[in-house]
């Protein structure tokens, strides 16, 4: 036992000396491992200095920035990041140890909302013991703190680059993740960990798809029966205190929490408390011998709110009012997707309405006209899924959705639907399923499905049963240009994008690996783009950086999936292809 301890101690000492030796001989690339890559970073001479063990951060007091400052200082002094490939840097003989970071914020009052200024400038001088971070807002200061924290590495002593200047600001103001907590429940701690990882990747919108046909996990003061009867159980719901914790945590990490209460479709869970306002609830989703066009839902879990029942609007307004009170976010996502004609047609009152020359689109227009003005009256901008305007069967006339108060979120038909939305004068959030759906490629969840049993000689794997397969690789996500094919003026209407994790086949056991590091790929493209200074796609050089960033996230407790064997990382360039794809 004693000899083993001696050997272990000797090995640790050797590795530490080797690490410091390698760290003291290097090129100007180590500061380029910041993820997402900054817009501009200048480090003409690759020098580093020691970070003082008594390092401090000074900033003006702010209720959300001050906790972030304390958190980052602790992280910087205790993380001890060891890059997979030690950065080639020369230790400066003339630079004093870095003792402090001073933060200057010009506007302490700017709220966290869309279009807030997230720019920052970071200067780590060669001949001073103090670095300077300046930002227009506290939210930009948080982005700069993240960049500074990623520049620090090493065991003892900690090292930090000197003679470095960064100016940084996002290309797109809306950079988010959708998490569906209805189909499967996620405890609050999982949501907080996701928000923490988002902040590290400079993502700023947690789009919370809270409710759906499968469960209603949100406890609302005005309508407690919805969660009492529609959740999976008392241990699988979010009370107002939980929401307050998540919103506050988001603010302290520079992440907005955008609630989505999907309606009028995706509302089967409402029927547990209010069966009279939901059509086709608890019916089999695709009746035997019927055509796909005659289905009651696009997946198991039926139910749509009835636009002809006055009680629908009383309940819905209570829900919306409570949700707005719980979430300070100025955007409110009202859903509006996948309205299935068969579900509404199953209701006798709607059958009578249609028999008198009424249409399904008129039903939707009645629903929108009864809810949209109310949401706007609560000082909210309404976000809908694209279907509400673009669906082939059930859609509203654009006159019901004034662009001033409306944002449309794309999920079908890639850049073509984005073009349709912005060319009509609407702002767009891009979540194209062909590129940004993280659940794709894992098959599908209905049982007794013959598509999994094609003839062995057919050569048709059917995308493994996944409607949106194949799996969306990080390269697919990284290379997607969300403004592809748009004019300069149309591009201005693209607010940004969101990757989506729908939870039919996801829960807390796979949460981190499904999201990370693929969401990191989108984070960089929306922050600083996916092209280098010459306009060439930079996915090749992003590979090594993302590998190291994934390694760093794992060490922070984010269980991100691996991208390559460790051998590839230890042998840079050896796992690349040098052949053109065509």
From TrEMBL:
A GO-annotated cellular component: membrane
Chain ranges of the Glycoside hydrolase family 20 catalytic domain: 172-529
Supply the name of the protein: Beta-hexosaminidase
Taxonomy-wise, where does this protein's organism fall, top ranks first? Eukaryota, Viridiplantae, Streptophyta, Embryophyta, Tracheophyta
Q: Which SUPFAM superfamilies match?
A: (Trans)glycosidases (SSF51445), beta-N-acetylhexosaminidase-like domain (SSF55545)
Q: What is the top EC class of this enzyme, as a single word?
A: hydrolase
Spell out the reaction equation it catalyses.
Answer: Hydrolysis of terminal non-reducing N-acetyl-D-hexosamine residues in N-acetyl-beta-D-hexosaminides
Q: Name one Pfam family in it.
A: Glyco_hydro_20
The source organism is Populus deltoides (Eastern poplar)
Q: Which residues form the signal peptide?
A: 1-31
Q: Which residues form the Beta-hexosaminidase eukaryotic type N-terminal domain?
A: 34-151
Q: Kindly list the GO molecular function terms attached to this UniProt entry.
A: beta-N-acetylhexosaminidase activity
- Any GO BP: glycosaminoglycan metabolic process
Q: What family name appears in the similarity comment?
A: Belongs to the glycosyl hydrolase 20 family.
InterPro entries, A to Z: Beta_hexosaminidase_sua/sub, GH, Glyco_hydro_20_cat, Hex-like_dom2, HEX_eukaryotic_N
EC number(s) on file:
3.2.1.52
**What keywords does the record list, in alphabetical order?**
Glycoprotein, Glycosidase, Hydrolase, Signal
Active site: residue positions: 338 (proton donor)
């Amino acid at each position: 036992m004693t000899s083993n301890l001696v050997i272990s101690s000797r090995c640790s000492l050797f590795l530490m000396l080797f690490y410091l030796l390698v760290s003291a001989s290097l090129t100007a690339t180590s500061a380029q491992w910041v993820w997402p890559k900054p817009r501009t970073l200048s480090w003409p001479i690759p020098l580093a200095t020691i970070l003082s063990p008594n390092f401090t951060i000074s900033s003006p007091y702010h209720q959300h920035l001050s906790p972030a400052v304390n958190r980052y200082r602790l992280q910087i002094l205790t993380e001890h990041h060891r890059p997979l490939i030690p950065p080639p840097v020369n230790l400066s003989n003339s630079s004093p140890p870095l003792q402090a970071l001073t933060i200057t914020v010009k506007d302490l009052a700017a709220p966290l909302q869309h279009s807030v200024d997230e720019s920052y400038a970071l200067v780590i001088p060669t001949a001073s013991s103090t670095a300077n971070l300046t930002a227009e807002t506290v939210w930009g200061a948080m982005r700069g703190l993240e960049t500074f924290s990623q520049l620090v590495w090493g065991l003892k002593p900690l090292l930090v680059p000197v003679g470095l200047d960064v100016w940084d600001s996002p290309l797109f103001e809306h950079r988010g993740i959708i998490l569906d907590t209805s189909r499967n429940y996620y405890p609050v701690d999982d949501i907080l960990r996701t928000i923490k990882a988002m902040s590290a990747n400079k993502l700023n919108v947690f789009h919370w798809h809270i409710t759906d046909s499968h469960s209603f996990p949100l406890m609302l003061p005005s309508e407690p029966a919805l969660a009492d009867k529609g959740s999976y159980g008392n241990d699988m719901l979010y009370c107002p205190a939980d929401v307050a914790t998540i919103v506050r945590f988001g603010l302290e990490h520079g992440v907005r929490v955008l609630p989505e209460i999907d309606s009028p479709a995706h509302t089967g869970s409402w029927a547990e408390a209010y069966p009279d306002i939901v059509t086709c609830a608890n019916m089999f989703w695709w009746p035997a011998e019927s055509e796909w066009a005659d289905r009651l839902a696009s997946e198991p879990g039926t139910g749509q709110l009835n636009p002809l029942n006055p009680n629908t609007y009383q309940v819905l307004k209570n829900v919306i009012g409570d949700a707005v009170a719980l979430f300070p976010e100025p955007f409110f996502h009202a859903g509006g997707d996948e309205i299935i004609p068969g579900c509404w047609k199953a209701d006798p009152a709607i059958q009578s309405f249609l028999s008198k020359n009424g249409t399904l689109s008129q039903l939707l227009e009645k629903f929108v006209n009864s809810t949209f003005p109310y949401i706007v009256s609560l000082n909210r901008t309404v976000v809908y899924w694209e279907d509400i305007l673009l669906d082939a069967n059930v859609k509203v006339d654009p006159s019901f959705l004034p662009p001033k108060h409306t944002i449309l979120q794309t999920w079908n038909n890639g850049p073509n639907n984005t073009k349709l939305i912005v060319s009509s004068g609407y702002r767009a959030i891009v979540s194209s399923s062909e590129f940004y759906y993280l659940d794709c490629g894992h098959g599908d969840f209905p049982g007794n499905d013959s598509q999994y049993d094609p003839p062995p000689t057919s050569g048709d794997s059917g995308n493994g049963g996944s409607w949106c397969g194949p799996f969306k690789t990080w390269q697919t996500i990284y290379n997607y240009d969300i403004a592809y094919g748009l004019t300069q003026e149309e591009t201005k209407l693209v607010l940004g994008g969101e990757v989506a994790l729908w939870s039919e086949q996801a829960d807390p056991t796979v949460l981190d690996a499904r999201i990370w590091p693929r969401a990191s790929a989108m984070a960089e493209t929306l922050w600083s783009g996916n092209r280098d200074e010459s306009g060439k796609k930079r996915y090749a050089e992003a590979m090594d950086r993302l590998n190291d960033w994934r390694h760093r996230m794992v060490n922070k407790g984010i269980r991100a999936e691996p991208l390559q064997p460790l051998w590839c990382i230890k042998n840079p360039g050896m796992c690349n292809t040098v052949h053109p794809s065509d």
